[in-house]
Amino acid sequence: MSGVIVTDPPKAELKDVDALGGYGVATVSEAMGRTGLLGPGIRPVQQGVRVAGTAVTVLSWPGDNLMIHAAVEQCGAGDLLVVTTTSPCTDGLFGELFATALRQRGVRGAVLNTGIRDTQELRDMGFAAWSRAVSSQGTVKATGGSVNVPIAIDGQVIRPGDAILADDDGVVIVPRERVRETVEEAEAREAKEAATRAAFLDGQLGLDRYGLRETLRRLGVEYRTYAEYEGGRP
Q1: Do residues 182 and 28 lie in contact, with contact meaning Cβ atoms separated by under 8 Å?
Q2: Residue range 179-186: mean pLDDT, rounded
Q3: 21-73 confidence digits (pLDDT tens)
């Protein structure tokens, strides 16, 4: 497997990425029309952490972390490392030593479609990470791959410089050209949710606020008393 290391990909504006980090993954995905989410198999190794950064992408061979070493050199402040392999792999491609090198360069976290290890050490040092699996299985450094090229995880194409937002609920990808507008859409959605929250605290039901009684009627869902329900059974 040959490869390429792209040294100067375009990136989303960091100020917009930072603004994106003010919203949760669910809110941002909804703001983009329920798109951009990685699958539920990518899970955080910590809790209560949200990070947003610009993607530095890595395509590696299974069981081989050579290209992660190559990617570290391409990482800078505000970046977030995103790793996948050419076929499924749950080996521990990433651990505390990589996190140490990345933190020194200002990297905000890592998302891996592979295994990760040293999870306690990562939590202790406060390095945020999301992965497909946790595994102590070691790796080799023997096969070429690529850095800063488009990759795909769970059907989502991730390009270098796209915005990555990750929290306890998962990971969402925001195309670099859409970050500013997505921030605005997320802000509007959060304002709408705040109004709904206030209405619920005041006792209003979702059935009425969202006009769902008519939906139930249209679908043929009936209200019956217990006696009517029991009496109507064969």
Answers
A1: yes
A2: 97
A3: 999 999 999 999 999 999 999 999 999 999 999 999 999 999 999 999 999 99
Beta strand ranges found along 21-162 (DSSP E): 43-44, 51-60, 79-85, 92-94, 109-116, 128-134, 146-147, 151-153, 156-158
Question: Which residue matches tokens 């792999």?
Answer: 89
Residue 109 phi/psi, 5° resolution?
Answer: 170, -175
Per-chain mean pLDDT for the chain: 97
Largest CA distance in the chain: 74
Q: What is the Cα gyration radius of the chain? A: 22
Find, among 55, 60, 52, 53, the residue nearest to 74 by Cα: 55
Angle of CA points 36, 185, 176, to nearest 5°? 50
